[in-house]
UniProtKB/TrEMBL annotation, chain A:
The chain crosses the membrane at residues 12-30, 101-119, 131-151, 171-192, 232-254, 274-300. Keywords: Cell membrane, Membrane, Transmembrane, Transmembrane helix, Transport. Belongs to the binding-protein-dependent transport system permease family. Residues 95-297 form the ABC transmembrane type-1 domain. This is Oligopeptide transport system permease protein. It is found in: Cell membrane. It holds the Pfam family BPD_transp_1_N. It is a multi-pass membrane protein.
TrEMBL record, chain B:
The keyword Heme does not apply. Keywords: Signal. Residues 143-162 are annotated as: Disordered. CDD domains: PBP2_NikA_DppA_OppA_like. InterPro entries: Peptide/Ni-bd, SBP_5, SBP_5_dom. Pfam families: SBP_bac_5. Residues 1-22 form the signal peptide. This is Oligopeptide transport system substrate-binding protein. It comes from Saccharothrix longispora. Residues 78-463 form the Solute-binding protein family domain.
Length: 307, 541
């Protein structure tokens, strides 16, 4: 196990270098001068543009620029934005907010999705099964921004049950955006676990367990569920990564001051330092999440061993 | 109040009510101890006036600084604020007396030196400020801000200037200084209301970083705290000496991720003011049902135009330009596409400017099918007409309508060609690579007729992107610049506009009404002509 983890960690190094280089190259090589439009309708003074090009090493060849960036990164220095803010500080301020939002969404997704999946998977072709199938199909076909606006409009503006935007990012106030963020994946989780459960329901080990006279609750809860959850866990794990990076729409609608909005605004204002910094962190999160998921397999199914 | 904010205008505004403090009834029955929350976007620059030309930062700095003159919200005209008087006899040397007894928020006095030092600092090349070019008319600017030999993108550095101060600025005493320009410029006193001309306290020159974290101004509001990405809090400066004292205490500028989310807060009264509503609220006049009498609107200082690349045939053909202009049905497009929130333009100067004269464009700006066809026939051109625009600012709909209007009137193939991003579009405009006529727009830097002509149409000017040139027009502008008084200058600028009119260097399309909204809590909240909340007008119930 230890060796496996070490090997995986070492494999991350080239992946990390490759992805960050691609991001860096794409951010700084996008068409359009990064200082165009920075000074309103008129052009920026030359001295300002020169100073900024200096700060971001834009006059060096791309590889040298990237090398300098990486060297700073290894020392924990994410650099400054053009507004003079520490990129690291901004990440430290926004990341926990999005993490909270993503965890809320993950809990919603896992609890509701798995419950619905198990219930419908156990009663193949019953009323509950059809209900789950139809409602998940409905959820899958609506984009997140529609769900978000409808929830905000109906519950926030018309009924007044919730505040239309998030005033302070506490777990309680993030439940509604969390629901919206989770809605799509929730449907997938339900369908995934339903398929898995109904397939494993007829497996030999389930029949054996039932034949031994184990109570159905135990058969389903321990034997069946444990095996059936492997694809679901994979999905949930990568989904947490997706939530962290992809909360842009939800954060925008509910005004959550998280990473999604930060990346989005930085792209709009062509703040390359911020974009590369945040996306680098997101790459790391993705890599660690996939490792975590792989390790969880072994916990769920003892037959899977890494050595 | 500082409302010297004309330049960029990108996004809009809003507010969350943070009612606090013991309610004390003012003389008019308003709560003078209340706090209000208004919409903001995250400032893109360090909070220093000379280095801020974008909206998010200006909304913070405007209330914190008071310059020599401030623009009145009723008519956008400059009125003395910190200046006691600005006098000149030749439009070249200006003597400025400033009011006594004013202090910065840290208690230090505002003196002539506070202005001169701040201006010198902003203009000094190595400080690399965004606002430096606004000082280029002052004598000695070239010495403190030398040109980069191979342009900003080149590897060579601009030489370090030998001097740090412009020779055109001299301090004559604690409360008086003299400005000498390199060329006479009669409109100069109007320009100094712009925020980059704000004074700076000693503390700034001692420790710039500390100042950026905790800016100290001389305006009606002082800085309290900032949570990056969330909000900036200001509070009333009780020792403020100006006439524009606010009628409420605390001002929170809340950062929104999107204008749509701010609008939701505005509708539910969580936000007190937003200057410009998002497109989803404007569509079908949805805001009228959502907000009712909470809608705030007024005509503001921006103009939409179509510019011609004079370097690209056939757009150098004057008859063709006139034909195109007369083929555009401005009236119908402003009603159909903008539901009346735009007003057809009849000249190149904005109607809110002092001295504005209607109808300067003459027949060329009115829709006339017969005359358009006649001019088109005279031009001898028969090929297609191309209209280019970026689409990321809601420009697609009207650009298509304009192309259709031209097509139907002239019976010629007219096509709208979209460009994805504003940055990419501007880059092509600057590099003179436009392949057809293109969308342009102007928001005044300062409220003067001059600003609607010189930068845009004078030969070689900074924003004359289409490379229009007319010696008679240039000569008239030069004459106006030298005029001894503003009134005479205005007359000459109007003459210049008339000289330019038959050339149709760009097509004026329309000026704008900005639609904003306020919460129930605000009894009064007005927009100023620069698309910002007029803080002085705000009264809280």
């Amino acid at each position: 196990m230890g060796r496996y983890v070490l090997r995986r960690l070492l494999q991350m190094v080239p992946v990390f270098l490759g992805t960050t280089f691609l991001i860096y190259a794409m951010v700084w090589a996008v068409p359009g001068d990064p200082f165009e439009g920075k000074c309103g309708e008129r052009d920026c003074p030359e001295s300002y543009v020169s100073a900024m090009r200096d700060r971001f090493n834009l006059d060096d060849p791309l590889l040298v620029q990237y090398g300098k960036y990486l060297l700073n990164l290894l020392q924990g220095d994410f650099g400054l934005t053009s507004s003079g803010l520490q990129v690291a500080d901004r990440i430290a301020a926004t990341f926990p907010v999005t993490l909270k939002l993503a965890l809320v969404a993950l809990v919603v997704e896992a609890v509701i999705g798995i419950t619905a999946g198990v219930v419908s998977g156990l009663r193949n072709r019953g009323f509950l099964d059809s209900l789950v199938l139809v409602s998940t199909l409905f959820l899958i076909s609506i984009p997140v921004f529609v769900t978000g606006y409808v929830v905000q409009l109906v519950f926030g503006l018309q009924l007044g049950w919730i505040s239309p935007t998030v005033t302070s990012p506490t777990v309680g106030s993030l439940i509604v955006p969390g629901f919206v963020l989770a809605s799509l994946s929730m449907a997938y989780v339900a369908r995934l676990s339903r398929a898995s459960i109904s397939e494993n329901r007829r497996a030999d080990y389930v029949r054996t367990a039932l034949a031994k006279g184990l109570p159905p609750r135990r058969v389903v809860g321990v034997h069946l569920l444990r095996n059936s959850l492997i694809p679901v866990i994979t999905f949930l794990g990568t989904d947490l990564g997706a939530f962290l990076g992809g909360a842009i729409v939800t954060e925008g609608i509910f005004n959550v001051p998280g990473v999604g909005g930060l990346v989005f605004r930085s792209i709009l204002t062509k703040d390359g330092a911020m974009v590369t910094g945040v996306v680098t962190v997101l790459v790391l999160v993705y890599l660690l999440m996939t490792l975590l998921v792989d390790l969880l397999y072994a916990v769920l199914d003892p037959r899977i061993r890494y050595d | 109040m500082s409302r010297a904010r004309l330049v960029p205008a990108a996004l809009a505004v809003a507010v969350v009510a943070a009612g606090c403090g013991a309610a004390e009834e003012g003389p008019t029955g308003s709560n003078t101890e209340a706090g209000i929350t208004i919409f903001n976007t995250e400032p893109e620059n360090p909070l220093v006036p000379g280095n801020t030309t974008e909206v998010g930062g200006s909304r913070v700095l405007d209330p914190m600084f008071t310059g020599l003159v401030e623009y009145r919200s009723e008519d956008a005209q400059p009125a003395n604020a910190m200046a006691e008087s600005i006098e000149t006899t030749d439009s070249k040397v200006f003597t400025v007396k400033i009011k006594q007894g004013w202090t910065f928020h840290d208690g230090t006095p505002v003196t002539a030196k506070s202005f001169v030092d701040a201006w010198n600092w902003t203009a000094y090349g190595p400080n690399a400020t965004q606002g430096a070019s606004f000082f280029s008319q002052i004598e000695g600017y070239d010495e403190v801000h030398p040109k980069d030999p191979d342009g900003a993108d080149g590897p060579q550095e601009a030489p370090t200037p030998a001097v740090k101060e412009m020779s055109g600025l001299t301090v004559d005493g604690d409360h008086q200084f003299t400005i000498t320009l390199s060329e006479p410029f009669s409109v100069f006193p109007v320009t100094v209301g712009y925020e980059v001309f704000a004074p700076l306290p000693e503390a700034f020159f001692e420790d710039r970083e500390a100042f950026e974290a905790n800016p100290i101004g001389n305006g009606p509001f002082k800085f309290v705290s900032r949570t990056v990405g969330t909000d900036i809090k200001l509070t009333r400066y009780d020792d403020y000496k100006g006439d524009d004292k606010p009628k409420f205490r605390d001002l929170t500028l809340k950062v929104y991720q999107s204008r749509e989310s701010a609008y939701a807060d505005l509708v539910s009264n969580n936000l007190d003011f937003m200057e410009e509503l998002p497109p989803n609220a404007l569509a079908g006049k949805k805001y009228e049902t959502d907000l009712g009498d909470r809608v705030v609107q007024r005509e503001t200082l921006n103009m939409q135009t179509i510019a011609f690349p004079f370097y690209q045939p056939p757009y150098d053909n004057v008859e063709l330009r006139r034909a195109i202009s007369m083929a555009i049905n401005r009236e119908e497009i402003t009603q159909r596409i903008f539901e009346g929130t735009r007003k057809p333009a009849d000249g190149w100067v904005h109607p809110l400017m002092k001295g504005y004269e209607p109808g300067q464009c003459g027949d060329y700006c009115s829709f006339d099918e017969a005359k358009a066809k006649e001019a088109f026939a005279k031009s001898g051109y028969t090929g297609e007409i191309v209209l280019l625009s970026n689409t990321d600012g809601g420009h697609q709909e009207w650009a298509e309508a304009v192309a259709n209007s031209i097509k139907n009137t002239l019976g010629v193939e007219a096509r709208f060609v979209p460009s994805t991003s504003f940055g990419e579009f501007r880059q092509k405009v600057n590099a003179h690579e436009m392949t057809g006529m293109y969308r342009a727009g102007w928001i005044a830097d300062y409220p003067s007729i001059e600003n609607w002509l010189t930068p845009l149409y004078r030969t070689g000017s900074s924003s004359n992107d289409g490379l229009y040139t007319n010696p008679a027009f240039d000569a008239k502008l030069a004459e106006a610049d030298k005029a001894p008084s503003e009134e005479e200058a205005i007359g000459l600028y109007l003459e210049a506009e008339r000289i330019m009119a038959p050339d149709m260097p760009v097509i004026p399309l329309w000026t704008q009404f900005t639609v904003g909204g306020k919460s129930d809590r605000l009894k009064v909240a007005n927009l100023d002509p620069f698309r910002a909340l007029d803080l002085e007008s705000v009264e809280v119930a």
